[in-house]
Amino acid sequence: MTVAPMDTPASPQPTEVVIRARADHHLMHDIADVWTNRDIAWTLALREIQIRYKQSLIGIAWALLQPVLTTAIFTFVFSYLARIPTDGIPYPIFVFSGLLMWQYFSRVVVEASGSLVKNEAIITKVFFPRLLLPLVPTLSAAVEFLIALVVLVAMMLAYGMVPSPLIVLLPLILLAAGLLGYGIGLVLSPLNAIYRDVGIALPFFVQIAMYLTPVIYPVTFVPPQYQWLYALNPVATLIDMMRAIIIAAPWPGLFNYAVLAAWVIGLTALGLGTFRKLEPAIVDRI
Amino acid sequence: MSAIITVDNLGKQYALSGTGAPAYATLRESLADAARRLFSRAPASAQKEAARSFWALRNVSFDVAEGEVVGIVGRNGAGKSTLLKVLSRITAPSEGMARIRGRVGSLLEVGTGFHPELSGRENIYFNGAILGLRKHEIRARFDEIVEFSGVGDFLDIPIKRYSSGMKTRLAFSVAAHLEPEIMIVDEVLSVGDAEFQRKCLGKIKDVASSGRTVLFVSHNMNTVRQLCNRVILLSGGKIQLDTYDVGSAIDTYAVAATLTRRWQQSMPVSTEFFTLNAFHSFSDNVESPRINFGNADSIGIFIDVHVHRYVPLLNFGVQLSDSSGNELFFSLSTDGAEKDWPIQGAGRHKLFAYLPSRFLNAGEYTARFIASLHNERWLLDPETSEVVINFTVEQNSLISPYWRMRRPGLLAPELDWRAI
């Protein structure tokens, strides 16, 4: 729905709202609506984090414990047993840095896809831009990403490694990962509200996708004739960028960035299109 | 004065999902459906589509000026809630448009967005944000909200430990302190205790008298009469009446409500627990229905019911309302001591009860048959039970030489005044 500019500048709330049939809505107005209501996204994200750890004994420490334990297991299985080479980087550091990015991305995808169903009670009773809902996990997952990042830096210091100052570029990578997940969430969340199959199948596909992404092994471990395939995987590029920053691994090639940008733009556009087309039906149907 | 709300030819069409069908489908069903559609002729399925949808609201146009308090009344399904949902932007209209100048605070359901694990304090901030307040605005009103709600001592414990009354009070407080230019309220005042309802009504009155605009849906005609200076009567998704003469609008509504709700005695009503054979008013002979009474006549209600599944929770009764739709009382077969209940098992039961004598005022009354599993659920509830009869009471036998006119007030009991 649309928000037109105010006609009386003196009024404290610059609102004239025009409510019209869905077909007459404009994308830019929807995006403006999201911006006007950004407070709600923050509030929802904070609530998400509060609720997640509220009744747990060790609280937010779970955000640390999960990646640390996963790293320990992966190190045992893939480094100690399977002896996957990591180009001279200590395996725990290598896998942790990949895992952080992967967990951020997959969490955004899964939670954004479930966001409409989860907030059903709110969206049928109060108005706010529904485009905000799949956006919330990009924020709440970012908080956990940052907490785990502190652990990563501590681990690196323990191994005598110093993070590169390029670490200040991380927010940009996170932004790309967030947009990627948001785009997928925009496509899947309305579908999930109509077909619950989506919510059932998604964790399975996310699990598979992790093995197709160089989280636990470096791309160089893959036979050279298949390595080009990884350039098409946007998350692989994101993880490589993350490792380039954190542990001075080589930067991905220019082609990879172009593919990544195409994915981000394409998925966001596809997501906005799908979401805006299905959203009105969802509210009446959910 | 320019309109603060302009509604122009608004319409909302809903698809009917088949009876009892789940709101969501499986991918498999949809794929199968799509395949079927591919092989059948398109026009046929378009026709089917049209047949499976209905207009909850159509051709609705009106303007509301700043400061008006508009009561929106109508039967269940008349489109009241749909109208409010469209105006609150929860659902988009299918045609037409509405223009709203000012911030809208809509209270369609209290407690929206409360999370059970979070404390009252945390929920105030969250609820406020969801309803459109900035953080600093909530902070500025926080104390007022807490004071109005009266849950100050419980602010830091999780909402899940609140009683439902406390939750309602807190939710209304947040919404009432939004200070929107336009307030949209849907029947929320039917919750909470009487004391708090009065407080809420007072708050809405304050909002109205401070020059802000209120749209108010209610089934309670007394409240509408008290609050509103204009009534829009909806019927079948269209505006039937739009007037500043609140009294006459309420009468029109009440007549429409009784006319369309008149129950045919020939229509047996069945639920999984019982079948209702007859329901009527009578005077002296229980089994001969009568609908016109004098004020001195005894007025009885007769229920003939066959219980095929007996549970002790099962009860029957009557809800009595006046011609303006004010509920006077309801009375249930289980009001007495358990051993005196008229229904103690399955089978056919004929019950009757008399109203107190010389109790009702002159006028038209509506008696509605209600049935429930006590404290569990309604089988036929006072809102929607279609089993309705009407009767009139005429003032034709007054004993006092001074009592000639219809008394003001809902009831006109003759009390027995004595000297000690």
TrEMBL record, chain A:
It is a multi-pass membrane protein. Residues 58-278 form the ABC transmembrane type-2 domain. InterPro entries: ABC2_TM, ABC2_TM_bact-type, ABC_2_transport. PROSITE patterns: ABC_TM2 (PS51012). Keywords: Cell inner membrane, Cell membrane, Membrane, Transmembrane, Transmembrane helix, Transport. It is found in: Cell inner membrane. The chain crosses the membrane at residues 57-82, 88-110, 131-160, 166-188, 200-222, 254-275. Belongs to the ABC-2 integral membrane protein family. This is Transport permease protein. It comes from Chelatococcus sambhunathii.
TrEMBL record, chain B:
Signal peptide: none annotated. Gene3D superfamilies: P-loop containing nucleotide triphosphate hydrolases (3.40.50.300). InterPro entries: AAA+_ATPase, ABC_transporter-like_ATP-bd, ABC_transporter-like_CS, ABC_transpr_TagH-like, Bact_Polysacc_Export_ATP-bd, P-loop_NTPase. SMART domains: AAA. It comes from the Bacteria. Pfam families: ABC_tran. Residues 29-261 form the ABC transporter domain. Keywords: ATP-binding, Nucleotide-binding, Transport. Belongs to the ABC transporter superfamily. This is ABC-type polysaccharide/polyol phosphate transport system, ATPase component.
